[in-house]
Amino acid sequence: MPLPDDAFFEKWKAELSPEEQEAFVLDGAIDEESWNDAPLKILFVTAEPDFVTDDSIKEAGDMRKLLSDDGPPGVFGMGLGRWAAILLEGKVPKKFGRVSARHMTANTAIINLKKTGGGPELADSPARGVVNWALAHQERLLDQIEALAPEVIVLCGDRVLAAWPVMLYGDAAERPIMRGEYAWSDPDVLPSVKAILATVSPAAPGMKTELKNAEIEQFAASQEVRALHENPPELPEEASEGGDAAEGEESPAGDAEAAKTDDADGAGEQE
Fold it and tell me: Where is the composition biased (Acidic residues) (predicted)?
């Protein structure tokens, strides 16, 4: 099945109001060639494009472009890069900056369950807004995920955890998913998916990088995820983190920024 193209999104946007069409942000495989060649197909699922704290998202109109363009990737992009490195290579290299983050993220895909821009400050009930949108667009979302055919899905943040079972089954009570929980497979829905992790947003405020990485590291080390690799990476003796001034990549959007604020969420999921 071919990856979703512009025609796929144009048909989707045609179902929306003019205001929603204006706020619609595309997403999917960040780099199609890298995605097709990736040793493990990883899909990050986030809540909605954040128009509140990141003007660049609305300007780009496409999460794929935002995460692949040269320039500081922000706390969110750095977080995704670290997580991709852990899942693909077993650990975050000691030298890891914006170039490394973009290189790792290029192997992955990202989708927002709510494609139109928003953010916690734009709704009385941010979770409900994402849940309602995901349910209303259930068929389109499932078509997009099935076309991507990921092997591993990482659900990022509380709003995604609330909306995911509703999007899949129409009822959150059907198969609720809690943070830190693994779901290995559901052959009746999304048959390509072999493992799912429910975790925080990579830009969750108030959490140190090491804590955000911990659940990803445990997930990556599981036998189920390692079995999906043709050549599983060696497990690290201990987690390694650090900037990469020696690599010449250090940017304000790297570890220093994450440690200082950890609240600039490029995909809109804020805890």
Answer: 235-252
What sign does the CA torsion over 47, 21, 75, 140 have? positive
Per-position b or e across 67-78, b if 16+ CB within 10 A of its CB: bbeeebbbbbbb
Cα–Cα distance between 195 and 192 in angstroms, integer? 9
Count of structural domains within the chain: 1
| Coil/strand/helix, residue 82 | helix
147 vs 142: CA distance, rounded Å: 8
Tokens standing for residue 41 = 């197909």
The residue range of the domain holding 30 is 6-260
Task: Specify the pLDDT at position 216.
Answer: 96
CATH number at residue 206: 3.40.470.10
pLDDT confidence band for 175 (50 / 70 / 90): confident
Question: Does 271 fall in a domain?
Answer: no
| pLDDT band for position 71 (cuts 50, 70, 90) | low
Selection from 98, 38, 113 nearest residue 256 by Cα: 98
Considering the entire predicted model, what is its pTM? 0.84
Q: What is the pLDDT of residue 136?
A: 93
